[in-house]
Amino acid sequence: METGLGGKTVVITGAANGIGRATALAFAKEGAHLALLDHDAEKLAETSALIRGCGVNAYDVQADLSTGQGVQAGLDVLLAKLPDGVDVLVNNVGHGDPKPFEEITDEQWERTFAINLMSMVRVTRHLLPVLRQKEKSAIVSNASDLGRQPETAPADYAAMKSAMLALTKSLARAEAPKIRVNAVAPGPIWSTFWSRPGGFAEGLSSIYNMPPRQAVDHEMKLRKLPLERLGEPEEVANVIVFLASDLASYVTSSVWGVDGGSIRSIV
Ligand SMILES: NC(=O)c1ccc[n+]([C@@H]2O[C@H](COP(=O)([O-])OP(=O)(O)OC[C@H]3O[C@@H](n4cnc5c(N)ncnc54)[C@H](O)[C@@H]3O)[C@@H](O)[C@H]2O)c1
């Protein structure tokens, strides 16, 4: 099957690690050129080197995507490097710190809002005029199954991911028929999101009072995931590439679960 992505230019936010990196590599394997943003300059350079190893172009810019100024500066530099504009935007950057509701301060709510929702708002607003110049273009945003089916924690993160889904629907209507706009809603995916110091594994460890890895396994049992395991970044990347490709030409305004079966509702 032909994805039609060869020679296209794909912008990915949060591309230095985890799902962002796996997604960049998956697009590169389809022959797409990559334009990458992240605040982790070292890992971003590693991702770019991997991309170039696939025989396509990789442009990367270090940027703090949690502020309006960071987004503006990063995208200005990035766009100046792109000879053929942008065909696909993947709003991937995100961050969560699982804490019980009463322990989430106003500052954490604001941080979660800035990096999860406002990064999507700002990057999309900046790139829409560029995407509209193409015959067909696509936006895929990385939400979460927690945005559709929240758990007890983290409430701030789940709320922002729900808002990302609402924004996906809004944009899909506003930009049709030229730009297709979809979201993926991954379940638990083993990445630095879980394993980093202060990440989900440690957060669950303090909530359940167990060692981090044991706390993750405990959480998975509570969630009763049909596929009984965490997913891998590549398993989300495959679906993002599909949604951005010609193979999904009649798919817009959709929320695509990549969640091991976590969502129980029919709609
Ligand atoms: N891992 C999961 O279980 C899971 C589940 C559902 C949804 N998601 C979503 O998938 C996306 C990617 O998550 P991941 O698992 O790959 O996480 P990750 O932590 O491995 O990667 C996130 C990337 O974002 C970058 N980043 C963080 N803050 C930034 C900032 N202020 N400016 C620029 N870059 C910044 C990090 O450096 C990192 O490269 C996120 O939106 C996350 O919410 C993850």
- Looking at how many chains there are and whether they match, the oligomeric state comes to single chain
Count of helix runs: 9
Measured distance between first and last alpha carbons: 29 Å
Globular, elongated, flat, extended or rod-shaped: what is the shape?
Answer: globular
Class per helix and strand makeup: alpha/beta
Bound molecules: nicotinamide-adenine-dinucleotide
User: Class of the largest domain, according to the CATH hierarchy?
Assistant: Alpha Beta
In terms of DSSP E residues, the strand content is 5-15%
Main sheet attributes: strand count, strand direction, barrel closure: 7 strands, parallel
Q: Any low-confidence stretches, pLDDT <50, length ≥5?
A: none
CATH architecture of the largest domain, please?
3-Layer(aba) Sandwich
Number of strands: 7
Number of domains: 2
Q: What is the CATH H-level superfamily of the largest domain? A: NAD(P)-binding Rossmann-like Domain
Q: What integer value in Å does the Rg equal?
A: 18 Å
CATH topology of the largest domain: Rossmann fold
Widest β-sheet, arrangement of strands: 3-2-1-4-5-6-7
Helical content (DSSP H or I, runs of 4+): 40-55%
